Every structure is written in C-alpha cells, then in structure tokens.
Amino acid sequence: MGSFGCELVSLEQAREFVGWYTRQVCERSDALTPVVTILDDADLASSVGVAAAALRAARHATPVDIAGDEAWGAVLCPVTGVPAAGSVLTSRVGSASLSARSAEVIAAERLGRDWHAAQQARAVPRESGERLLLPTRLDELGREMGESSKLAVVVADLNGVGALLSAVPGDRLAEAGLALSALTEAWCDALVGLVCEKVRFDGDRALLGADAQGVDGAVSPVVLAAARVPGDGREPRWFLPLRPWVSAGDDVVMVCESRLAWWLAEQMVCWLDATAVDAEDPRARVDAVLGQRPTVSIGIAVVPVGVSLSKGHALALQVCERAKRKAHATSDAGGDCHGLDWHRGVLDAQSVSEYRDRRQVAGQHSTVRPFVWSRDLPEAGFAAFVDRWLGPGEQSLRGELWSGLRSTVRDTLLTAVTRNSHTADDADTSSEALREALEQLNARRRTLHRAPVELPDDTAMAAAFLDALDLRDEYLRVS
C-alpha cells in the first residue's frame, strides 16, 4: 500500500491522469484498489484529512463498486469493454480474487448461474444429485492426459418443422412453439439422466463406458473429473462428461467428452422415437399439435481441447446440414428418415463442405456419410454400422485380426486415403492409395507369418470400412 500526490494545471489533465492511473493500478493487480481524492485549495487541511480517511477505509474494505458514473477514467469490463459496474469473484474456491464486470455481464452471469442451478435440479436424478454435477467449464468434461484431449459438439435439428408448422392453424402456433420448446428441454434432461444411470463408481473414481470385460480393442472408459469444490464432509462428487449448451425451438446443442458423442447421438434418436409415457409427455404434445413427430438430423464435430467452441459448433452445424439435406431427399422418396454425419479435425466449416463435394465429384468414395435411415427400419441405420464394424464380431475392426493394428491402421490406411485428395484433379484415387498401403502393410505381415489384411471389394463396403477406421479408436460403447 502507498500514496502520493501531484498537482495538475487543468481539470481536463486531471481527468486524463486519473483514468490512466486507475487502469494501471487495476491491471497490475486486482488486489489493489485505487483511491483518488481531489483536494480543495480553500480548505487544504480538511481535504487532506478526508483523503487520508478514504485511503484507510480502502485498506480495510473493498468498495462495492469499482467504478461508477462519477468515476474519472472508469475501469473497463474485460468482456464488453464498457465501464465496469461492480466486481465478481473469479475463483471457483471462493478466494478474494476480484474481476471488474459491466452491469450487462453481471446480469448475464446471474442468469447463467440460475439456469445452471435449475438444470442441475431438474435433469440430474435426485439419487445422483449429491454425487454428480453438471460441468460449467470445458476441463470438467473428463479430459485425461495421455488418453483423451478432445471434446465434441453435437448439434441436433428436427427435420421438416417449418413445413409442419405451416400446416398448423394460426391460433395454435403459440401452442406448437411451447410444445417444441418443452420437447427439446425434456430431450436434454433425458440424456443427462441416462448418463447418470450409466455411471459406475469404483473406489475414488467414477467411470462411464465398457467395463474390463468389454470388447477387444474397445475404447477406454471415460473417467469423470472430480469436482473441485471445498470439502463439506459429504461423499466425493464428480462432474458429468456432458453438458446441454443450447435448447431452443427445434434445436439442441450439447458439449461432451469426444468418446461419448456417437452413443449420445444414438440415444437422442431412440428417445425421440420412443412411445410417449402419457398425454403430458412433450412427445405426445408435439404429436397432437403437429400431427406427427419430426425426425432428426445430427451433426458431430470433434475438436482438440483449446479450439474455440464457436468453431466446433460451426463444424457440427455444417455436417448437420449435410445430414439434413440427405435425410430430406431420402424422405421425399418415401418414409421419414433420420440423418447423422460427423467430422473430426479443425478445418473451417466451409472447407469441410468443399472437401466432401470435391471428392464426390471426383468419384472418390471414401465415406458413406451422411448416414440416413428410415424411422421404420432402425436396425438398418447407424446402429447396424456400429454392430458390423465396431462390435464383437470376427469381421469387426475390434475383432481378433485388427486388435493388434491400432496405430498401424490409423496411420497407414486412413492417411493413405486422404493424402492425395486435396484437389479434384489428383491422379491417384482413394482406392489406389489404399491398395498400395495394404500391399506394403501385408508385405511386413508376411515376414511375421501373419494373416493378410484385406479391404472389402464392394465400393460401398470399402467406404463404410473407412468410416469405421475413423471411429475405431473414438467410438465408446456405453453398457
């Protein structure tokens, strides 16, 4: 602590200096509180006394307002850039670290806390509420050093809602909007509750995923992050590895640990298609007001931790739109269809779309995505793909033949199919690059007296094989 005085020749210079001084002090440390007093030459002794009293008070108490309307050179909110109206604790454990915030940010943070508390109370089952918490930060999603450093943004968008709403009488449009909002909110709550049911506790750890008796080569279970909150004598608590991010209208956006994304997408479809429990069930309300229940298209973007959520959301939205277009085209041919697509990596959203279109024009069938299947034939959808390629079967990529090729499969085969695909004029096709890589791989395997690895002859099967390669080390089967 310290003090100094100075004399300035004009009120304008005084304002400029006080603003600079205040900002410099606050940027140096949020534990310092600048106190500025203007002395009156007519009563200098009294003014000095007032200044000294203000300085002593500041040493023993933090002012409620860091800066107000009368402050010269107000401290700026780092979020909005406007003058701060108050201070908030920035530490999760309640330390005295303060940060300036504008009134708008303070109000938004208050609304966010209230929304979080309401969702925690509503979505997490009562029996789990003492041990499982919804996360509020990305590093609480279950990231494991050396195991997983990726998160997924999952975007779900109901299909054909605009057309269905156009057929609703005008006096029932408000009812339809409320029914859709209730549906998406219940959808999020159901997924959170389902994940809570699947969590198992093992000593001082909480796990989600296949147990030790799972399939060979299966992805390791997600280890839930321990809650970093002050001890209060109760049982240990953990953060759930997912968080509903947006629930509005006919859209749902979730953030989760990357290994859970595809299982969550499957469960979203299952819940939406399930029979309504009663007349108050939001699914029954939507059926009644829209005349039918919409299908859904889902986009998944997997990005490394540290990449902005806005970029992950843009990627997920892009692949969701692709799934939506294909589902719409397939539905027009007969039957209501769900759609699912994904992207792993950090390309910008437009590049992903251009890359897919370019490969399709060039005849490079390296994917069968987006997956589209009829609501009436769920067994022919993504679940069938998972059972065929990522299940316990002998031909699965997690079967006996492939179980020892974890890194070789990804580094050699998957890289081979993408390395020559950046322009539509490339001479090497995906299949040719793959065949070459397989020949080199099998030459090494022959020297070790091992069975050769073979790619399916059928083009569609080969493309599905490549999609399975993409998920082999990522898809987590939750049992």
Structural write-up:
The chain has helices at about 10-30, 45-60, 105-125, 160-165, 175-200, 260-275, 280-290, 310-330, 350-360, 380-390, 405-420, 430-445, 460-470; strands at about 85-90, 100, 130-135, 150-160, 200, 205-210, 220-225, 225, 240, 240-250, 250-255, 295-305, 335-345, 370-375. The strands form 4 sheets. It has a 6-stranded mixed β-sheet. The protein has 2 domains: about 10-85, no CATH class; about 130-470, no CATH class. The protein has about 475 residues and is an alpha+beta fold. The protein is globular, with a radius of gyration of 29 Å. The protein is built from 13 helices and 14 strands. The protein starts with 10 loop residues before the first helix and ends in a 7-residue tail after the last helix. Mean pLDDT is about 75; it is low at about 60-70, about 90-95, about 210-215 and about 420-430.
Short description:
By secondary structure, this protein is of the alpha+beta class. The protein contains 13 helices and 14 strands.
What is the N-to-C order of secondary-structure elements (H for helix, E for strand)? HHEEHEEHHEEEEEEEHHEHEHEHHHH
Number of helical elements: 13
The amount of beta strand, in percent, is 5-15%
Quick one: biggest sheet? 6 strands, mixed
Query: Strands across the major sheet, in which order?
Result: 10-11-4-12-13-14
**Could you tell me the radius of gyration in angstroms?**
29 Å
Average per-residue pLDDT, rounded, comes to 77
Could you estimate the helical fraction of the residues in percent?
A: 40-55%
Number of strands: 14
Overall 3D shape: globular
Estimated structural class = alpha+beta
Oligomer: single chain
Number of domains: 2
Q: What is the distance, rounded to the nearest whole angstrom, between the alpha carbons of the first and last residues?
A: 60 Å
| Uncertain spans | 60-72, 91-96, 212-216, 420-428
